[in-house]
Amino acid sequence: MSNPLFARKPLALLLEEMKGENRLRRVLGPVTLTSLGVGAIIGTGIFVLTGVAAHDKAGPALTLSFAAAGLACVFAALCYAEFASMVPVAGSAYTYAYATLGELFAWIIGWDLVLEYAVGSATVAHGWSAHFQDLIKSFGWNFPHAFSTAPFDFDLETGKFLVTGTYFDLPAILITAIITAILVKGIKESASFNAGMVIVKLAIVLFVIVAGIFLVDPKNWQPFAPFGYTGISFFGHTIFGQTGANGAPLGMLAGAAIIFFAYIGFDSVSTHAEEARLPRRDVPIGIIASLIICTVLYIAVSAILTGMVRYDQLDINAPVSNAFAQRGLPWAQRIIDVGAITGITSVLLVMMLSQPRVLLAMARDGMVPESFFGAVHPKFRTPWKSTMLTGLFVGTMATFLPLRVLAELTNIGTLLAFVIVCAAVLIMRKKHPEAERPFRAPWVPFVPIMGIICCLILMFSLPAENWWRLIVWLLIGFSIYFLYSRKHSVLARMRAREAAAATAPAND
Questions:
Q1: Is 472 inside any structural domain?
Q2: Which of 8, 9, 172, 331 is 20 to 30 A removed from 148 (C-alpha atoms)?
Q3: More confident residue, 295 or 84
Q4: Quick one: which H or E segment has residue 240?
Q5: What residues form DSSP beta bridges with 243?
């Protein structure tokens, strides 16, 4: 008898679930899906993390860091696109893993996606709060310190938590509540709201590129890679590259591991496959188009930013807007701050839009209580209960947990999810070569193998603390799985019914 931990959900069963009444509304086309992808990607990474990565990790070689992270995402995106065309239902990588690797791996990746979307949303809410306070400060009004940030922070140099003297982050709570209300209303309204914000922030990004190109001083690009081109560690021990004061690796690859957060979001397109009008065509287009657009913009902005201001003089909190202020254009600083707030808002919307859809897929499989997480609003056709719970969870974390802890957790969890998706493509090609694939990832097995290698390299380029936090997160997930999900899953109930029928005495 096969091990139930690795029982796979048949593709036929996945597709059959889509025919019921408890499914989402198909209203998204390729342009809207691409817009959702761009909305999820461009935001915190381009307006915030560029300063941290260039200043502390990579220098002007940040452009190569974005290229390296983008390359890893390209390999993963092609694998995502293949699965999304085969299984156009909600759930993203969780659903793909259930169909290929089995129930336990599906739970691991589903729990991982909670780490990516919910914890990532809290990170983005922090960034929104900081930029909002910077903007109103430019108008001469200071937000009350007691309600401006989390009550404690993490000091990288000492490795200890410090008290900030505040109670909670009020702006983060307010933006989370507003986004939650919009998401409960409906996917069409959410997508339209996001499309408007995407247009605004793309205009701001293009403004940065066009205006900034005339302010570039090539001398600022020297030295191009002050920390080297590597930066790989193995559980806290640097094996290639320089080591920072706190033991973390430095270099171009170390920068890629940090700014990888900037790319989190392209996979959110696949979570909306059930809401796509023609998912087998539109979802792959949305995934790949959004990733290509954002990679090109990231490389251009990082090149201009490090050319405008020497890397070690970049402001860590608001690098793009501050760079224009340093070059004598304070009026541009305010424009960019507005664009940053808009961009970060759309990232928050898409990430909080994606989380309930993953929980919906898990609820359909019995992994989490279906009566709550599987509830679809009769009018709005949205997973409203899990959306409200997601908003509460995100708001609580954004209010009380420091930014550094949240950001580091998100990166390593997402990279692990990408590794599993790439491995699943290899397994699916071997075990089910006959399955219909409207979109096929090219150059298999090269593409998925390179995706696995690139993502693992970036995982090992993160500080050791990230691995310990990931292990703790997974242990919590395993506890939930073995105490609840393993017994209540759809496949477990099917096996129980089959066993009961086989042992029942004949009545005739």
A1: yes
A2: 331
A3: 295
A4: strand 237-240
A5: 249
State the total domains in the chain: 1
Which residues does 226 contact at the CB level (< 8 Å), separation at least 6?
59, 61, 311
Q: Decide if 408 is inside a domain.
A: yes
**pLDDT digit string (tens) for 424-433?**
899 889 888 8
Residue 294 belongs to domain with CATH number: 1.20.1740.10
Give the pLDDT of residue 23. 58
**Any residues with CB less than 8 A from the CB of 478 and at least 6 apart, and which?**
none
What is residue 214's predicted lDDT score, i.e. its pLDDT?
Answer: 93
pLDDT at res. 252: 95
Assess if residue 53 is contained within a domain.
Answer: yes
Strand partners of residue 161: 154
Burial (CB count within 10 angstroms: exposed 0-12, middle 13-18, buried 19+), residue 404: middle
pLDDT of residue 1: 43
Asked whether residue 207 is domain-assigned, the answer is: yes
Per-residue DSSP letters for 133-167? HHHHHHTT-PPPGGGSS-SEEEETTTTEEEE-S-S
Q: Which residue has the tokens 């270099």?
A: 251
The tens digit of pLDDT for each residue in 195-210 reads 777 788 889 999 999 9
Q: In a 3-state reduction of DSSP, which class is residue 374?
A: coil
* Residues found in the chain: 508
pTM, two decimals, is 0.82
Report d(CA 448, CA 466) in Å as an integer.
24
Number of H helices, E strands in the chain: 21, 6
